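Handout, section 4.2: multi-component inputs.
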Amino acid sequence: MTVETTRNLEALAAQAQTLMSVFTKAGYEAVAPSIIQPADVFLDVIGESLRARTYVFTDQDGAELCLRPDITVPTCRLHLERHADPATTARYCYNGPAFRFQPQGATASHPREFRQAGIERFGDKSREAAEAETVAVVVKAIEKVGLKDWTLKLGDLGLFSSVLDAADVSPNWKKRLDDAFLKPLSFRNALKDFASAARVASPGVPEELLSAVRRDEWEKSEAAVAVYLEENAIELLGTRSLADITEHLMVIAEDRQEKPLDASAIELIERYVGVTGPATTAGEKIAALLKGAKNGAGAALETYDRRLALLANAGIDLNRVTFSAEFGRTLAYYSGLVFEVNSASLEEKSPIANGGRYDGLMRAAGAQVEIPAVGAAIHSERLLAATVKGAQ
Amino acid sequence: MSKLTLAIPSKGRLMEQTTDMFARAGLVVRKVGHVRGYRGEIDGLPDIDVAYVSSGEIAAALKAGSVHLGITGEDLIRENISDAATRIRFLQALGFGFADVIVAVPACWVDVATVHDLEDIALPFRRLHGRWPRVATKYVNLTRRFFGSKGFGDYRIIESAGATEGAPAAGMAELIVDITTTGETLRANGLKILDDGIILKSQANLCASNAAAWTPEFEKICAELAAKLSASVPVKATSRV
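Output:
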């Protein structure tokens, strides 16, 4: 743990005040969501891996709660409580503690209790404009505090989808690769599986069923599964229905029929994943990659260019901006643009701020539909450390 | 602490098996003082203090170093001590208390045979039910580590204190991670083990705590005890380092 001195606290308080004044002047309403949150939303969105990093506990009534590991989800919940229509546009800013278990032990750059100052905006229809503004406000706030040596790293999880379109991947493979992209390990496996002819089913899945199910004969297929269960004296139990099981058998059977990914598509995907470098030239690299592709460049590159132009307009020096196709893959809930702000005074693994687009999160928090959402959070202790170091 | 402390299970089958095993090794474990007390000694090894501890708490005592030695299941050590490799030495597998920690799903899931298949159904399940599949278990850490090593994270743990095998049928969870010896209870509850779903093959072990205060004298007594037990392990179970 960092040793808390009064001086340290005062410096953090002064810094927070500066950050919040930039946010509120930019039109973000200051809010203070609860520190203790229901664990459900976090666990459902981020999955069990969250438990490894979050203080989850059970209260006297048996409710599963947690100390908030970030303030984004609590802000989503606050927005939903306030507005019957979650698509209502709103901008919020906050400053307060968040908590994370540090498996390697708590250190100054990875404390278990830290302060986050951040912004979230919901319901904006002009996507790239909202994204560029978010980045610009965060950079402005950081500069206002006195940090000069910042750099900005961008990623774009939406771009991958367009790369798959360009590679002319079948709808089935596309859906699977898209789903797997966020999980590097299964992604590599999926790519390997799809490359080497048709999918091989687990030997434990009965062959007689895989050859019996057919989508154009749905009822017959379901009946075949029912008969198999009965003949083998297996009781149907649990949440998944006969239809769920039949559907998945069908997917496996269809995967086996699917044509393997062709070598050029795999090469394109692999070369795209490897793209990294200055944001201005990365765009050209991707354009060059997609040029030879079957379906051409598509709208995603226009989005990429428009976003960069908007960033430049907002006063961001593009020479400080890099892009990495892989970046953001392991960050829980993002769905489009992702970014992080680093300082030369701190190591790469300790970004000063990060954020991005997370349209799916509001739905996980209880909304009926996806809501456009962009946000960012500043790690206060790191910002203070970088500013102090930079001034020396 | 002037004596070497050995924690053994305070009740149940594990205590009986431990006492039997010691008896076969020519070591008579006797309670000291009141028959309901929780201290004991071993005839012929006067420098060992025996503490009867509930089997669930032996791992915690070893972790803290409040006892030098303990007899408990490897499953409990691995579950309760995240860095077991540095904190604990497994001195001797004892050839009883066998239990496999396994992943089991409803037998009617004919479309799911491996963890990879589980991963395959997690997202469609979520789209349909609005949540990840739930795993009922008391082995929260073993579960997380095992699925983590396979790159699978799309599930939700429901902590279960007992009768875990009944959770899927009761609609409390979709699958379970639990211990089994013969698989009988699993079958009776309409469950099957995944083909790659064996997390740990566990048995009772004599374990040493690295956190306890050791003297050369204690090491000598400990080696003597381990040698005696080793000679009477029924099935020749290999010791682990």
